[in-house]
């Protein structure tokens, strides 16, 4: 099976970006106040990635009008049909879910939490903060999607372009166990997260207006 998107560029900076900045700052404050170790931070951001994927899955399913420009399935141009939307949504769910399943095994084996009960409460709290932000972002995108004709390939690949640089930054940060260095890397992660979020569907065909 082969899915392909030929690409161009578009950038945004909006209220959802400001919300993302605020949620990251709150999480960093929690990390300092609760004296998180790197394992807690990595699990919080793993959960953030799951949340990003969950809302992206819902976003694909909720698309009413979408473009398939430059989007191919099995080397064939895709048509903007309901079957294309459903296939794309569940392909994303399977592939993204499998990626995070393997990532969870990696975290469990190589960077286990030092205090599971304490870390779990922090992870859930951090996850709740990011859930609120990404829920708002989902609603924001849904309103825009009703006004525009987003490219379904752009929506499919957007989370990967966002989370891979974010987690590579954090895994490098895992080499440093000093909390000051940890906070530095959380700050770098925030910058990477914002840049990846702001580069909306970087390298993808721009959305068109409905009508």
Would you give an account of this structure?
With 211 residues, the chain is mainly alpha-helical. The longest helix has 32 residues, at 116-147. Helix 1 (15-34) packs antiparallel against helix 4. 70% of the residues lie in helices and 6% in strands. The protein has one domain. The strands form two sheets. A three-stranded antiparallel sheet has the order 1-2-3. The protein has a two-stranded antiparallel ribbon with strand order 4-5. The chain has six helices and five strands; from the N terminus they run βααββααβααβ.
List the helices and strands and how they pair.
Blueprint: E1 3-5, H1 15-34, H2 38-62, E2 71-73, E3 76-77, H3 82-110, H4 116-147, E4 148-149, H5 152-173, H6 179-198, E5 208-209
Antiparallel strand pairs: 1-2, 2-3, 4-5
Helix pairs in contact: 1-4, 1-6, 2-3, 2-4, 2-5, 3-5, 5-6
Flag low-confidence runs: 5-11, 201-205
Q: Outline, from the CA principal axes?
A: elongated
> Secondary-structure element sequence?
EHHEEHHEHHE
Major sheet attributes:
3 strands, antiparallel
Number of helices: 6
Whole-number count of domains: 1
| Secondary structural class | mainly alpha
The count of DSSP E runs of length 2 or more, i.e. the number of strands, is 5
Distance between the termini: 33 Å
C-alpha Rg (nearest Å) = 18 Å
User: Mean pLDDT, nearest integer?
Assistant: 80
Widest β-sheet, arrangement of strands: 1-2-3
Report the portion of residues in β strands: 5-15%
The proportion of residues forming helix, as a percent range, comes to over 70%
């Amino acid at each position: 099976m082969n899915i392909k998107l030929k690409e161009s560029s578009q950038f945004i900076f909006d209220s959802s970006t400001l919300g993302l900045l605020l949620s990251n700052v709150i999480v960093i404050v929690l990390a300092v106040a609760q004296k998180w170790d790197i394992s807690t931070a990595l699990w919080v951001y793993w959960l953030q990635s799951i949340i990003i994927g969950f809302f992206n899955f819902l976003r694909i399913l909720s698309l009413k009008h979408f473009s398939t420009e430059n989007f191919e399935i099995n080397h064939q141009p895709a048509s903007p049909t309901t079957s294309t939307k459903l296939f794309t949504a569940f392909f994303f769910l399977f592939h993204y879910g499998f990626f995070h399943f393997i990532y969870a095994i990696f975290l469990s084996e190589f960077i286990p939490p030092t205090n599971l009960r304490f870390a779990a409460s922090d992870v859930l709290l951090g996850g709740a903060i990011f859930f609120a932000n990404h829920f708002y972002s989902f609603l924001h995108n849904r309103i825009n999607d009703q006004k525009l004709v987003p490219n379904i390939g752009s929506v499919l690949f957007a989370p990967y372009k966002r989370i891979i640089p974010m987690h590579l930054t954090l895994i490098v940060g895992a080499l440093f166990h000093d909390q000051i260095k940890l906070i530095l890397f959380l700050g770098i992660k925030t910058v990477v997260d914002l840049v990846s979020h702001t580069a909306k569907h970087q390298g993808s065909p721009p959305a068109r207006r409905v009508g």
